[in-house]
Design a protein that fits this description.
Blueprint lengths: L13 H11 L5 H8 L3 H5 L3 H11 L3 H6 L3 E2 L4 E4 L2 E4 L12 H8 L5 H4 L35 H5 L3 H5 L12 H10 L15 H17 L10 H17 L1 H12 L9 H14 L8 H14 L7 E2 L2 E2 L8 H8 L3 H7 L9
Antiparallel strand pairs: 1-2, 2-3, 4-5
Helix pairs in contact: 11-12, 12-13, 14-15, 16-17
Length: 351
């Protein structure tokens, strides 16, 4: 065991514990620690069993807990963490964001060389969609300058004085609904999973909540490059609420986008804008978002006057469900004004 022991918290990343252990024992960082223990850093960061067990044995911690609280590489760019499987694109594994108030609580009333090693990285902070702390209502922040990859203590130690003084605090109006849910799941709790929360993995929930929330607040034409961190946190709250309320809430959002003010000739890609693009070929195009992709496709087929050869999301329409005035006029050889006067005309091939 190491001469100086630090506590391994249930909500802490193993790599954070390794870095704190290294600093508490006078080493420069995790690289030196792994060199002394003859552990491959690459194997450790990939969750290799032998590397994790070797470290756990020397550190005197439970190897099962160690494995649960580290990222274990899986097939198809997936990682297992705390009993969950998350795509690498939904994770921040190399650098570390923090809630300044959480670290101040870790350190205690006085910042010293000893208490500095008490500050640790929470597992939930590694999810890219986690924007804020639901306890202290502060936005998560990176250190002002990036530190060594995979070394929490090395990255944050130079900035602990500024953090301790509150200089890095960024208050937010967001409630942190997704963040509280993610923390509960990753800490081994069993929070309620209403609506789409039961159909998406924890990483997909966050990414989808952000996209749905941005569409709910900013309409079809939002751009992530124009969204501030505060806007992103508020959008995450809004989108998480939509997902929690299930299909009816998603349907209401899609209806709002469809009937929003816009050009009459706009087709579905224009009406649903960035949300359509995101689910079709953007960050939401992966298999983990299939329930939402299916919902959008079904919504378009049921509410737009599409006919054979039209493209609906990813597939070609084979049967017309109903007409618009223009498609009815074209099919039946009528003037549009005559169709308007006759009322709604259903297609004989409608299902």
């Amino acid at each position: 065991m190491f001469p100086v022991q630090v506590e391994f918290h249930r909500d802490e990343l193993l790599v954070s514990y390794a870095g704190r252990t290294a600093r508490a024992n006078g080493l420069l960082g995790v690289a030196d620690l792994f060199k002394d223990l003859e552990i491959s850093a690459q194997a450790f960061h990939a969750g290799d069993s032998s590397a994790i067990e070797r470290f756990a044995s020397v550190a005197g911690i439970d190897p099962e807990q160690a494995r649960s609280q580290t990222f274990i590489a899986m097939a198809d760019d997936q990682f297992a963490i705390a009993g969950q499987q998350v795509a690498d694109k939904h994770l921040l594994r190399r650098q570390f964001r923090v809630c300044p108030a959480c670290l101040r609580a870790d350190i205690g009333p006085e910042l010293t060389r000893e208490t500095a090693t008490c500050a640790y990285a929470r597992t939930a902070w590694s999810l890219t969609a986690v924007h804020s702390c639901p306890i202290h209502h502060l936005l998560l922040v990176f250190p002002p300058e990036a530190g060594t990859n995979f070394d929490f203590s090395h990255g944050w130690e130079p900035w602990l004085f500024e953090l301790f003084e509150g200089d890095l605090d960024k208050p937010t109006q967001a409630e942190g609904k997704y963040e509280a849910f993610a923390e509960a799941v990753l800490n081994g709790e069993d929070p309620p999973r209403p609506g789409y929360l039961a159909r998406l993995d924890i990483g997909a929930v966050g990414a989808a909540a952000e996209a749905l929330g941005l569409s709910s607040i900013h309409g079809a034409k939002w751009s992530t490059t124009d969204i501030s961190a505060e806007d992103g946190a508020l959008a995450l709250d809004a989108g998480f609420e939509v997902l929690s309320c299930g299909e009816q809430a998603v349907q209401s959002l899609l209806d709002a986008l469809r009937f929003a003010i816009g050009k009459p000739q706009e087709r579905p890609p224009g009406r649903y804008g960035r949300l359509h693009e995101w689910l079709l070929r953007g960050g939401g195009a992966g298999a983990e978002f299939a329930p939402l992709q299916d919902h959008l496709s079904r919504h378009i087929q049921e509410t737009w006057p599409l006919g054979p050869k039209d493209i609906c999301f990813r597939s070609q329409v084979t049967v017309r469900r109903f007409h618009s005035i223009l498609t009815a006029a074209a099919q039946y050889g009528l003037r549009p004004v005559s169709v308007r006067g006759a009322g709604v005309i259903s297609s004989p091939s409608a299902v």
